[in-house]
Amino acid sequence: MNKAVELKQGQNQLFSDPNADKAREFFRNKSRAMVNKVTTVDEAVKRLVKDGDYIAIGGFGANRIPTAVLHEIARQGKKNLAFAGHTATHDMQILVGGECIDRLDIAYVIGLEARGLSPNARRAVESGKIKLTEWTNATLSWRIKAAAMGLSFLPARNIMGTDTFKYSAAKEILCPFTGQKFAAFPALYPDFAAIHVHECDVYGNAHVFGSTVSDQDLAKASKRVVITTERIISNDEIRRQPTATFIPFWCVDAVVEVPYGSYPGNMPYEYFSDEEHIRQWLKIERDPEEFRKFFKRQILDTKNFYEYLELNGGIARMLKLRAIEHLTHNR
Amino acid sequence: MADFNAMELMICVAARNLEDGATVVVGTGAPCAAAMLSQKTHSPNLTIMFEAGGVAPILPSMPISVGDSRTFHKAILASSMPDIMETCQRGMVDYTFLGGAQIDMYGNINSTMIGTNHAKPKVRFPGSGGANDLASLCWRTMVMTPQDSKRFTDKIDFITSPGYLSGGNSRYEAGLPKGTGPYRIITNMAIMGFDDTSKRMKVLNINPGYNRTDIQDNCGFELLWADRITETEPPREDELRILREEVDPHRYIIGR
Predict the structure, then answer these.
(1) Check: complex ipTM more than 0.90
(2) pLDDT tens digits for A160-210?
(3) Residues of B with catalytic annotation?
(4) Domain A30-151+187-325: CATH superfamily, name plus number
(5) B179 close to B163: Cβ distance less than 8 angstroms
(6) What global pTM score does this model have?
(7) Chain A residue whose CA is closest to B170
(8) Contact A256/B at CB under 8 A
(9) Would you list the domain boundaries of chain B?
(10) CA distance A41 to A194
């Protein structure tokens, strides 16, 4: 490119620090010890989530989500969190229901894909009380990947020329080799991430089956990581097939065994999403007062995740969702 | 001629545009139905991809989420979101489908907000999700949408996903990959493409039961017209049978 090119930049706020040296300083002091990290949800959230943190949630909105951790963040009344809305659907409903977030990186929020929109999340975003910066699913994936690589940004070829770029915090740069214009995306190093997995050992070595979204990069990029798991397996199981290790122990700060931990979300190969329960949320959210009572009864007033499962049909319901997942419910 | 509704027509037209051996990233709903119909009619080797990582599943039913377990049921690959998006960026994905609240004459799409204040929108929608990425990086973008003069507007409130931006060469000059962009806009009334030079929306086919006046009256900007405009081939019996019996037996999509 010979003629001078005007390089644009997004005008909205960057909610996290992309500085790779600062991240290295943090990771320098992060424990690498392979020790038993099993704890409770309550304890993990108390220890690892601080008011004002930037948090990210693994999975995909209502698929393989760490619901118990999300509930506990609301139950403990964590405030002023920034959140990576990376196809955030039911996870976002919970965090907004608990009034936990005040800054939002948006790729996809307030919708629940084919199910429609969340009235409560929509009210919150339309209220002007949450600071909003626009991104996209790929962009947030690459921001997390840049951090996983220990960088301060990654270049890519999407979003230029659109209002999504204009209201982001991205910048245009020129490739030093070809002179072509790229969008530069700042690395995202979350303070905290929670990821739900199929199985892991007590040290946090984890297996995930099915689509993995951005979770491997997320585990590496985040400063503090809690893993909830359908079941704890032995370290021998991990060592028997090392190629299957999806997240290694040194990324992980806490491990909690939470069977049915993605409920009411889908857990691939285990149980399908509880569409009736999610529909109930969407319906009740239309009335703010009714929703406040519902949220209190379902989440704030339940002692833990197991009480919540009991409240919504318990093991009988879980068996039904297992049958739907395995396509045996009509047989 | 078989009896059919507008959604069935749009899905059949979209399915015909997906050739055998191509790759397509789809979302839930009508685009997924079009890809499934295409596979079951003329494109058995169409590779269907979902942005959360599912590739070439044998879909047992319509997914609810582009990341749910149906999207990699008996699949070739259960991968990751960055992997799918990087495959698009490398130029290996031929088609994608998008939708939105507003579309303008250059095929730019709004799925973010209505209003003028981004910090406090009058109406907020989910935002890009993967839409901007797919519109930026796949070779050809298609849209299936009902047509009216509010949705087809000359004053788009927010460009979430890029079409041809301000027309001409502006999309490439903005930095987006060469040779990419909107390909077909499939509505209940017509099928549109884009003028080679100006990149403005251009009517190619008129759907059965509509005329030029209907199409222009239900569009908020001036449409261009192809030199030779033919009537859209209505859904064939075999397409409708497969769509109704195999693709969407519960009429989740075609019943809308």
Answers:
(1) yes
(2) 999 999 999 999 999 999 999 999 999 999 999 999 999 999 999 999 999
(3) 51
(4) Glutaconate Coenzyme A-transferase (3.40.1080.10)
(5) no
(6) 0.97
(7) A161
(8) no
(9) 6-247
(10) 11
